[in-house]
Automatic annotation (TrEMBL):
The gene is panB. Pfam families: Pantoate_transf (PF02548). The active site is at E183 (proton acceptor). Belongs to the PanB family. It comes from Anaerotignum lactatifermentans. 3-methyl-2-oxobutanoate binds at D45, S46, D84, K114. This is 3-methyl-2-oxobutanoate hydroxymethyltransferase. It is found in: Cytoplasm. Catalyzes the reversible reaction in which hydroxymethyl group from 5,10-methylenetetrahydrofolate is transferred onto alpha-ketoisovalerate to form ketopantoate. Pathway: Cofactor biosynthesis; (R)-pantothenate biosynthesis; (R)-pantoate from 3-methyl-2-oxobutanoate: step 1/2.
Amino acid sequence: AKKKTILDLYKMKENGEKAAWIVLYDSCFASYAEEAGVDMILCGDSMGMIVYGNAGTVPVTMDMSIAHCQGVRKGAPNTYLIGDLPFGSYHISAEDAVRNAIRFYKEADVDAVKLEGGVAVADKIKAITEAGMVVFGHIGLTPQSSASMGGFKAQGRTVESAKAIIEDAIAVYKAGARTLLLEGVPEEICAYVHKMLPIPVYGIGAGIDCDGQVILAADSLGMYKNFTPKFAKKYVDIAAMATQGIEDYVKEVKEEAFPAPEHKYKISGDPEEFAKL
Ligand code: KIV
Ligand code: NA
């Protein structure tokens, strides 16, 4: 299939076709996702937890993000790819935000960049957009600010918090973001924002009333054992399959069942000459 553009995403919204995107960080999984026909891939800063074993996403750097994004792009050359601006890469100034967004485009061939926050980062969204790049907004449960939220907690459950999310959604839209992702909010809030904004609104842990869904490959394929959010569905259990496979390998090495004849190289030449070595 031909790689999608932002216009295709708008067309999908117009036609009521839901977009399915997935979060992953390497070329192998990117190739599986492309073959499976995913609409978009996010090389998320959740790599800080899934790949690097941190408790959160805060330690992720630009260099880590770029390196993983490059791998994903090579594995999925024809899939819409979103780079995830890591914590600290767009907070200091609009200039810094533009510089780092440019790195994703120049070095990792992304189609868009995503950043977290609403009213507070509207100037950064505007600056990146004005430089000719596509920004995906991300509000609600924003893992980069988990310290100020007191952990990974659903947002918008009280009227006051819901109002703040709606204000954030408006700010993100007005700043020029081309799509918006809502994470960890009640379905009613997502439905409201979806109805309110003319741009595609996607959800993760935000119910079904929007233009599409995102999920982490780590959650949906059962790779990450430390924690599974309430909103994740496990489609396969890679952790169990991988552990079983490695157990079988260890056993076969001990029993000398591996390597078998088909795994061995054969000599070429006279076996008798080799026997004299
Ligand atoms: O990094 C990530 O995995 C994300 C998703 C939660 C959308 O930003
Ligand atoms: Na992220």
